[in-house]
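Quick one: structure tokens for this chain, please?
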Amino acid sequence: MGLILCNVLFISDDTLSGANQLSLLLAAAVATSFALYNKMSWNNLMNGIIKAITTSFPAIMILLMVGALSGAWMLSGIIPTMIYWGLEILRPAYFLPACVVITCAVSLATGSSWSTVATIGVALIGIGSAMGINEAYSAGAIISGAYFGDKISPLSDTTNLVSAVTKTDLFVHIKYMLQTTVPSITLTLIGFILITIFTENSVASLETARQFQHSISQIYNINLVLLLVVVLVVFLIVKKMPPVLVLFIGAILGIITALIFQFDYITALCGGNITFSSVYDVCMRALFGAIVPETGNPEINELLATRGMGGMINTIWLIITAMIFGGVMEAGRFLERITQAVLNKAKSAQSLVTSVTGTCILFNATTADQYVAVMIPGNMYEEAFQKAGLESRLLSRTLEDSGTVTSVLIPWNTCGATQAAVLNVATVAYLPFAFFCWISPIMTLVFVWAKIGIKCKDAKFCAPTNVNH
């Protein structure tokens, strides 16, 4: 943590290019030294690292596909069309609250925060930029809404995972979460309404938006038919097709629609010399590399630039090094030692819930994986909750409130690194404005310490702390 802090202070914006990765490797080396001193087997440590990296492989594949999708959708005009019509409909006076509502709706329908951010989120961040709205505000609103659905949608993998780990009925789990989730999202909306009120939204921002629209329409063939690709992708996600396949299909459809609708733009990128090889080069480069259109306006060039799969390499490198660190921490039994010390001191409903909250956040920071951060604490604390006479739904809600949503606030966690890469906004920049993600663990603590909605199977445990039963 000290090395990461030094990186932020002394290297600033370029920490993802290698500094954070090296810091995680150095931390893993220190942890390995202690583990070997404690007579741990080198092979066990290596197996722990391999296991951790293996668990992150789906995230790495999704990242690569997200890079390909964003490049293909930019070349095809799908994202520019969403930006164009978004600028036509949305206004600075209500843009941030609208971002929250839109991403809430999409993530509830799909159950996926990653897919929501990679599709609708990318368009919204572009719309906000065109309106002159701080990208950190926009990213915070997008992520807040996306993780709302990730948390309570019955289609969400984390919601189903937590329900299974704690042996809680899925809909009992979702219904109980609403106690803390509704106040959290309400406060989030209020926060963005206040930001909107106290942020200047001048006529100049609308004029800038019109200029963006004009420039986009000069480059791309803006056609609502292109949005059918977005509808199809959302439909496939709702039907629970694996995300990697959905994103791959979306990328291929993007290239096909680019050849149909954006041939003039492709011709310009080929330098006017249309041959099979030049068109092939442009299409492939959109999927794996950088394409920067020349509009004469640097801001618009940056908005419409693509990075493809290559733009995800630093993030993938970060995830791999984070998993090396997390693998050593788990295989070396450091996490077990820390959490056991915490568990031994948890003597009431309040202290148990507080311990789960802290443990989930700790695991998000040390194992760098959202799933590990809810699975391991869920298994660890299940017996303690049973002995205490507390219902499993209290544990399941706490895991979601503190494990699922805080993962995106850790720069080297798979979620934090991915969303920062997709939106091109640093985690530390959007963190203060991802209101829902840090209000949720606070809300769960407020509810338990206020003794609201806690039900015990065994009144003996609850009676000393005056918990309702």
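The chain is about 75% helix and 0% strand.
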